[in-house]
Specification:
Length: about 100
C-alpha cells in the first residue's frame, strides 16, 4: 500500500504529491475539543495551493532580476504572487 502524503506530517513550506499533481502546504490548523475535562485533538486542516513540480535545487520562484521578487521558494513576488513574471506590468529590474 502506498504511503499517504499526510502520514509524513507535512509542515508549511512542504511540497506533497497526490496522483500527478503537486501541492504546497501553506498553513496547518489544529482543532481541539474538550472531552471529560481534557482537550483532545479533533481535527487537522491544511491550506494548500496547487503548484508546478518543485525544483530539486530549492531555487526561488519567479524572475530573480525583478525588484519585487520575494526570493523565496514559497512566494513569487509581493505585487503579483501568483505570476507569471513574463509580461508583468510591475516588472522593475534591480540594476
Amino acid at each position: 500500500m502506498e504511503e499517504s502524503p499526510w502520514q509524513i506530517n507535512p509542515h508549511p513550506g512542504t511540497y506533497i504529491q497526490l496522483a500527478e499533481q503537486y501541492y504546497l502546504v501553506l498553513e496547518k490548523r489544529h482543532s481541539y475539543q474538550l472531552r471529560q475535562g481534557k482537550y483532545s485533538l479533533s481535527g487537522i486542516r491544511a491550506v494548500v495551493r496547487a503548484v508546478t513540480p518543485p525544483t530539486e535545487d530549492g531555487s526561488i520562484l519567479g524572475d530573480p532580476s525583478c525588484q519585487f521578487n520575494a526570493r523565496s521558494p514559497l512566494l513569487r513576488c509581493a505585487v503579483n504572487p501568483l505570476g507569471p513574471c513574463q509580461g508583468c506590468a510591475h516588472y522593475k529590474p534591480i540594476f
